[in-house]
Amino acid sequence: MAVIESAEQFVTHLHTWHKTIKTRDRAQSAKLREEAYAALHAGEFIDELWDRFLLLDARFDFLKGDIDLCEEKLQRLNPDELNDYQSFFYYSFLAIVKYSRKEYFTAINLLEKAELHMHAIEDEEEHAGLHYNKAMQFYYLDINALSSFHLEQAISIYAKNPQYELKVANCKSLQGLNQIDLREFDKAENNLLEALSIAEKLGQEDMVVACGFNIGLMYHKQQADEKGIPYLMQTVTYSEHPLYVQALFTLTRSLYILGKSDQAQAYYKTGMRVCEEKGNLEYRWQFAILWAKYVDRDTMDYVYDSAITYFKENGLFYLMRRYARDYSQLLWEAQQIEQFHYYHKLALSNDFQ
After folding, report:
1. CB 293 within 8 A of CB 328
2. What is the dihedral of CA 91, 97, 101, 104, to 10 degrees?
3. Do you know which InterPro entries this protein is assigned to (predicted)?
């Protein structure tokens, strides 16, 4: 049990707790949380330290997966009454709540507010983290140039310290995804392979899987699906990884494109089963589109229309645009002009969220 009697000791304890939360060590974070809570109630501490405790307590709830409770605790605080140090973390933590709900524009606005208070934060890792988080939001909004800019800012800070090598790898992986979208494939390949090399060296399995998936995706977008198959095959051996469904879909699509229908069908069946088990309609519709496009074209009109409608109604506008573009091309080739105009217009939509 830590001895926490003075304000200085309490602040030091909070720093340790915050660092532990960032390592995702739930057990140790819970222990440090209880020690901080006990110290608060046993001593007499100023309101500022109660506020700092509440900020980290909310962040700990996020780590545990209780996003609603995290947000509820943050809303107990009045941002107008917080100092610059507290305000930085208040807006940063609220931003990750919004990001987790795919409210990317709101998250960016909150990170912009956090940046106004960044001068109060001495730890450069927090500066780099803010740039990385902004880069994530811009990437999901297809604003690749701004995402790349903030990644360069983050890398310039992380690269100063060898202990942040994995964070550099994360940045390079995301930078590679931006470069894929910008069709800068040579740069993307260099960044993704470098990120993979770092992850393998450090024994970071989750990162290895993510990099393998991204490399497979990159080769697909280069129309070099054959080169991506080995990476995707390796990725789908990790059925508990968060990217498992995406990897199954990307592998299935590449196999259909290469005319390897028997292999593709096996992964298609697995993908549909997993989507049904997890209630993942976003990818269930995408798998259905693959089947309609490559196997049962008689269902194509119904499946594309239903899927695009689902994406639109559920705010998945980037998927709406992607598949409206795909479908409009098929309609143009079939000279179904009236339908083509409707889906072509959807493909050019300015909706972001």
Report:
1. no
2. 20
3. TPR-like_helical_dom_sf, TPR_rpt
Please name the amino acid found at residue 340.
Answer: F
More confident residue, 18 or 9: 18
pLDDT band at 315 (very low <50, low <70, confident <90, very high): confident
Per residue, the 3-state secondary structure of the chain, as one string, reads CCCCCCHHHHHHHHHHHHHHHHCCCHHHHHHHHHHHHHHHHHCCCCHHHHHHHHHHHHHHHHHCCCHHHHHHHHCCCCHHHCCHHHHHHHHHHHHHHHHHCCCHHHHHHHHHHHHHCHHHCCCHHHHHHHHHHHHHHHHHCCCHHHHHHHHHHHHHHHCCCHHHHHHHHHHHHHHHHHHHHCCCHHHHHHHHHHHHHHHHHHCCHHHHHHHHHHHHHHHHHCCCHHHHHHHHHHHCCCCCCCCHHHHHHHHHHHHHHCCCHHHHHHHHHHHHHHHHHHCCHHHHHHHHHHHHHHCCHHHHHHHHHHHHHHHHHCCCHHHHHHHHHHHHHHHHHCCCHHHHHHHHHHHCCCCCC
pLDDT attached to residue 2: 62
Cα separation, 174 vs 211, in Å, equals 9
Domains of the chain, first to last: 1-122 (1.25.40.10), 296-353 (no CATH)
The pLDDT value recorded for residue 281 is 97
- For the cut 60, the answer to whether the pLDDT of residue 277 exceeds it is yes
74 within 8 A of 97, measured Cβ to Cβ: yes
pLDDT at 45 over 50: yes
What is the rounded CA–CA span in Å between residue 28 and residue 208?
26
Give the whole-angstrom CA distance, residue 18 versus residue 55. 10
Cβ distance 4 to 13 under 8 Å?
A: yes
CB 195 within 8 A of CB 170: yes
